[in-house]
Design goal:
Length: about 230
C-alpha cells in the first residue's frame, strides 16, 4: 500500500510517535473536543504542503510565469489531488481502524470522503513537520506529488475554462459564489461554490478566490463526468 512515490512520506507517517498519530487519525465524530481532532494539524499542514509544492515548482520550472505557477500549484494541492494521495497511502483505512463507537455506515462514509481524506493528509504532513522539520517532510511531499506536478505542467489545468466550454455545448453556464472567507487577514482561505442551473456541483478552497474557484470548477467537472457515465454505458 505504501509502494511507489509516496513511500518516503508513508514511512515518516508510520514513524510518528503514538500521541501524534492519535491526533492525526482522530475525527471530530469521536474526538472529546474539536481541538483533539486532526483539524488543528490540518490547518498547519495546508501551509506546509503549499510551501513545499511552491518551492518545487519554482525550482523545476524557471521559465514559468507567476500566473502559470499559481495555476499548477492550485491543481497539485487541490482537495481532489490530496485525497488521491491520501488514498494511495491508506490513510482512510487507518482512520477507520481507530474509530470509536461509530456506526459502520457512517464510518464507511467518513473514511471514503474526499474532504476527510484530504484533511488526513494535511494533518499527517503537519505532524511529520512538527516531529522532523520542514526539510525532511518537504522532499517526501514533493516525491508523493511528483506525478501530479508533471501532469499539471503538461496537462490542461484551467478547470474554469474547461468547465465553461463543456457547459457552452449544452447552452448552460456556471456561476461562482463565495461561501466563506476563513482565517486572519494575512492568511485568508476562500471557500467558493460552482453553481450550474442553480445546483451546487463543486466546492473549492484556496488561498485566493481564483484558486478556490478553480478547485470548485474541477469538482464540478468531475460531477458532470460522473453523471454522464451511466448514460455512456447504456
Amino acid at each position: 500500500m505504501h509502494e511507489g512515490k509516496g513511500e518516503a512520506l508513508a514511512r515518516l507517517i508510520d514513524a510518528l510517535p503514538p500521541e501524534r498519530r492519535e491526533q492525526v487519525f482522530t475525527h471530530t465524530s469521536w474526538a472529546p473536543d474539536r481541538s483533539s481532532s486532526y483539524e488543528r494539524l490540518e490547518f498547519l499542514g495546508d501551509s506546509v504542503l503549499e510551501l513545499a509544492i511552491a518551492r518545487a515548482l519554482y525550482d523545476r520550472f524557471p521559465e514559468a510565469s507567476e500566473g502559470r505557477l499559481a495555476k499548477i500549484r492550485a491543481h497539485v494541492v487541490s482537495r481532489q489531488s490530496c485525497a488521491t494521495v491520501a488514498r494511495e497511502l491508506g490513510l482512510g483505512t487507518t482512520l477507520a481502524t481507530r474509530a470509536q463507537d461509530v456506526p459502520q455506515p457512517e464510518l464507511h462514509r467518513i473514511s471514503l470522503s474526499r474532504n476527510v481524506l484530504a484533511a488526513l493528509l494535511e494533518a499527517a504532513i503537519a505532524a511529520v513537520y512538527l516531529e522532523d522539520g520542514f526539510e525532511a517532510v518537504e522532499s517526501a511531499i514533493v516525491d508523493a506529488f511528483d506525478d501530479r506536478i508533471e501532469y499539471a505542467r503538461t496537462g490542461h489545468v484551467d478547470s474554469k475554462t474547461e468547465l465553461q466550454e463543456a457547459l457552452a455545448r449544452t447552452g448552460r453556464s456556471v456561476q461562482y459564489d463565495v461561501l466563506a472567507v476563513e482565517g486572519p487577514p494575512h492568511e485568508r482561505r476562500f471557500v467558493c461554490a460552482a453553481l450550474i442551473d442553480g445546483v451546487r456541483l463543486g466546492v473549492g478552497r484556496g488561498s485566493t478566490k481564483k484558486a478556490a474557484e478553480q478547485e470548485a470548477a474541477a469538482e464540478a467537472l468531475a460531477s458532470l463526468d460522473a453523471a454522464a457515465q451511466p448514460a455512456a454505458a447504456e
